[in-house]
Amino acid sequence: MNKFRHTSLVLMILLTFIFGGVYAYGMYTINTTSKRVHDLSKELADRTQETQSMKHLKELTNDASDRKQKLLAYTVQPDQTVKFVELVESETQSSGATTTIIGINVTDSTSIADLESLSLDVQSNGLWHDVVNVLTTLESLPYKINISHVNLQANGSNSDDKVSKESQWGAAISFSVLKQKDVNPTQ
Question: pLDDT tens digits, residue range 82-127?
C-alpha cells in the first residue's frame, strides 16, 4: 500500500504541476491577448480620432471654400471691370439725374491678398430726389459697395435764395468695390 500511496502522491504532485503549468500558460495567454486587445483598441481609437479630425478639417475647408465663393460673388471679377463701370453708368442713368464717372482708380488691398480696390468718382446733377436716387441705385448694386464720400450741394443758389427739393442739386460721390486681381495681367 505504501507503493500505492507513493504512486498516488507522485501522481498528485505531477498533476498539480501539470495543472499549475496549464493555469500559468492560460494566464500568460490571457494576459498577452488582453495586452494585444488593449493595443489594438488604442490604435483603433487613434485612427477613429484621426479620421474624425480629417473629416472635420475637410468640412471646415469645404465651408471656407463655400464662404469664399459667396464672398467673391460680391466682388468684381478680374475681367469684368469695364462691365462694372458700364453697369454703374446704365443703372445711374435710369435715376433721372445726369451722372458722369469722372475718375476710376485701382489700388492694391493690403488686407486681402487676392483682391484690390476699384474706386470710382461720380458727379451727378438733377432734382433732389433724382440725385438721392443715384445714391440708392449705387447702394443697391449686387456688389459690396463702400461709399466713402458724398458731397451734396444745391446748384446755382445764392445765400439769399431758398433751397428746396425742386432746386437743382449736385452730388460728388466717391465709392469703392472689391475687385479680384488679374491672375495673368496683360501688359
Answer: 998 999 998 888 888 899 999 999 888 656 667 888 899 999 999 9
| Structure-block grid coordinates of residue 19 | 495543472
Q: Select, from the ranges 15-29, 42-56, 107-121, 150-164, the one with the highest average predicted confidence (pLDDT).
A: 15-29
pTM beyond 0.85: the answer is: no
Q: Which of 127, 130, 126, 137 is nearest to 175 (CA)?
A: 137
Q: b/e string for 93-128 if b means 16 or more Cβ within 10 A?
A: eebebebeeeeeeeeeeeeeeebbbbbbbbbbbbbb
